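Think of the structure tokens as a kind of shorthand, similar to the way a musician reads notation: each symbol stands for something richer, in this case the local conformation of the backbone. In the example below we present two proteins back to back. Begin with the first one, reading the sequence and then the tokens, and try to describe in your own words what changes along the chain.
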Amino acid sequence: MNAPTPNMSDTLARILADKYEEVRERSAAVSLHEMEKRAAAADAPRDFTRALCDAVAEGRVGLIAEIKRASPSGGLIRDPFEPATIAQAYEKAGAACLSVLTDGPWFQGDLGHMVQARAACSLPVLRKDFMVHPWQVFEARAMGADAILLILAALSDDQAQELEDVARSLDMAVLAEVHDRRELDRALGLETRLIGVNNRNLKTLVTDLGTSDELIPLIPADRIPVGESGIRTPDDVRRMCRAGARCLLVGEHLLRQADVEAAARELITALD
């Protein structure tokens, strides 16, 4: 299990170096075989993709509402941080799905946050982390995740295919995240219908909604584009819709509001 060796000056490379070490340590404590057994014993997954499609069919924004305590770019985002309460607020607002950050060193996340959020609502939940090894996919399912994120910038084609195959074998959805045209072309080689376009450059952490303007129109009609990062206002939602994305992943903006339910509802109903 060896980490890639890109220019270590960028943020993503440093996160990945930590992640490979974390997975080495944790998989030594709980074997892959044991994690496979735990995944097989978990309750059936909720249908993440269908939840998004149903929201769009009903005329709403398919919002994947994110739960995270902190981020490298934004620092501490919400304190006190109560995943279950936030999950319930998002569900009341009409969110289609949840995304929960589980990375500890960089986002102050924890798998317990995901477990608490999922138990508090009926929404399908994406484990938001830097997935680099099948062990993590089995762990995600064992802990109740219904979907995983695959960041194409962090993975080779073989890695992405292997992780998707494991997720599909567990009836989990996959959100393939891209940042440029080359990554989009690679993502379209996967089976998943969910293609996330991240407006944040993971090397510089700079956000530019123009990334979605450029890439979303290139996504084939049989796939489901998901706009990610930098989406804060109803106008931003409408901009993503004009580009071709009616599904969005939004976190930091919502979590910085005193009333996360009202903030989420404002985005969900932006197309009314």
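Once you have a description of the first chain, move to the second and do the same.
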Amino acid sequence: MEKIVIKGGKKLKGEVDISLAKNSVLPIIVASILSPNEIIIKNTPVLEDVTVLVNLLKDLNCEVDFSHETGELKLNTANLQPISSNSDLIRKMRASFLIMGPMLARFGSCKISLPGGCNIGSRPIDLHLKGFKLLGAEIEIGHGFIEAKAKKLKGNRIYLDFPSVGATENLLMAAVFAEGTTIIENAAEEPEIWDLGNFLNSMGAKIEGAGLGRITIEGVESLKGIEYKPIYDRIEAGTFMVAAAITDSIITINGVNEEHLRPTIEKLKECGVKIQVNGDSMIVDGTGKKKPVDIKTLPYPGFPTDMQPQMMSLLSLIEGSSVITETVFENRFMHVAELVRMGASIKIDGRTAILDGVSNLTGCEVKATDLRAGAAMILAGLVAHGETEIGELYHIDRGYTNIEEKFRKLGADIYRVDK
């Protein structure tokens, strides 16, 4: 079984290049279903989630050419089959459920297994299904599967009870070919929504307002093939920003969008970290004295839930009390037990974590309970006394490309080993 082993205490220095956003690449890969022409996605990160989704499309008879060296991913869905998809693959990753929108739009039907993913809390698909119904689809839910059918989707006004990223993406793709006008209100505003809308518009869709909370889609007849480069990964960038802070280091991060990172930038500045942005590069100075802060996760443009575990690692080492309130996922404190094993002082009260900063953490055996929790364990291991061993790396590999190599380039003593 593979583990990441870290010997803590090393300062970081140098530059790190951020990969393209996993949460943009995945829906863009799925959106290729909407065009029978070749789609080329540039600089695609080699991630477990990407591999799962590509294999899912192969199962549907999509032609795939993926260069791990260059990151160029070529997809041709001309011979795609409207069949029920591989249940094992669907259960592996929640993003696989996003095939329902474009499959329904292109073929008029889609039957899939109930989706899986990180066990960080309930992420109901009722908003997706409610939207499909408003577009004219008939929905059948059976033992372990969902089937949607519609001879022709028709535009409608859809109000989301919660600004769900997945539901917004699924409905946006479903509505591209719908007859007339579709309006999605209370839509998710994450940068990845804007990126998907921009990708679809580049293919010939007529979408306004993607990423602004109210999206208008005018149905079109077809979409063309294109080459496209998605946005940088704001969560990976945020992870390295926290790395500079937790190790009292100065590093340069290449591949950032200041606006996309605004919530993380402002919280780290409040904490005492100095940040200078120069175009798509950022210098993060974590050498100064740091102060405890309170965090409340919210949908974008609020503080991202995907940065909460990493910030918890940092705050566990800052003198004083910090409070973290998790409002997005009810089960996203599984990393707390692992941090406590390393010596952190954290108490949980419902969806609130109360931290009393300690002077140091001690390395030990821990596990990545989910994707971002795994990143939090790496950050804690970078400063812990002694050696930290992190298991269940498949979670980390779902969202970070060669993370140990990137940290090693910055001077960390970190290796992946078979134990």
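Compare your description with these statements about the second chain. The chain has two domains: 2-18+232-418, 22-228.
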